[in-house]
Design a protein that fits this description.
The protein is mainly β and 210 residues long. The chain has helices at residues 16-28, 71-83; strands spanning 8-12, 32-37, 45-47, 50-53, 63-66, 87-88, 91-92, 97-98, 103-104, 109-110, 115-116, 121-122, 127-128, 133-134, 139-140, 145-146, 151-152, 157-158, 163-164, 169-170, 175-176, 181-182, 187-188, 196-199, 204-208. The N and C termini lie far apart (47 Å).
Length: 210
């Protein structure tokens, strides 16, 4: 399908994650990227040969994806975008595997090699990063970031804005509270409360987060 027939899209972010999101959009042929948003720098410029705007405007595109890895920041920017009238778009890599029986909300990014199995429910603005697997009947709440190479067993619940680091393993039927961070390579075999940092094998509580 020619690009001129695709709906236009803005990507909010100019980091490495934004590069990944842009490639997913291009490979999936879902939207035409109109440009990027970076409200942390006042001077205009380009990113991946496309214009960078200091603020989002629906005159540029009707759809937007928040390409920011930080969970709380991503949710805050998504709220701003929705209030400004944008439609949250979803980016799913063509080389991911997403069950037709999974429920995906707006704003989700699913990277290459990711697997999402039947019965899963993913909230808005979730990231399922490169090579991560989410087994059956999991609930991944809004704004959570499932890092590269994470493996999640069945019936797991991941709370709002939680971040699972690279290569973490979550045993089946585990609950991870809102806003928690699981360190890279951790093995979680017991429930974790909200707003805590945990890592190790097995994962242990390290400290409470602000």
């Amino acid at each position: 399908m020619p690009d001129v027939e695709l709906p236009s899209l803005l990507i909010w972010g100019t980091s490495g994650h934004a590069k990944v999101v842009a490639e997913i959009v291009r490979l999936s042929h879902s939207h035409r990227i109109a440009g990027f948003i970076d409200d942390t720098h006042s001077a205009p410029g380009t990113f991946q040969d496309l214009p960078v705007y200091a603020s989002p405007s629906t005159s540029l595109a009707a759809c937007i994806i928040i390409a920011v890895g930080d969970c709380r920041a991503r949710l805050a920017l998504a709220t701003r975008a929705s209030e400004a009238g944008f439609v949250l778009a979803t980016a799913i890599h063509p080389r991911s595997i997403v069950s037709a029986e999974a429920t995906l909300s707006p704003g989700i990014v699913v990277a290459a090699g990711a697997v999402i199995n039947p019965g899963c429910q993913l909230g808005e603005n979730v990231i399922i990063n490169t090579g991560a697997t989410v087994d059956h009947d999991c609930i991944i709440s809004e704004g959570a970031h499932i890092g590269p190479g994470v493996h999640i067993g069945g019936w797991v619940a991941v709370g709002r804005a939680s971040w699972l680091g690279i290569g973490a393993i979550i045993r089946d039927r585990i609950t991870i509270g809102c806003g928690s961070i699981v360190g890279a390579g951790a093995v979680v075999i017991a429930d974790l409360p909200g707003n805590v940092l945990a890592y190790g094998v097995p994962a242990k509580f390290i400290r409470t987060l602000p």
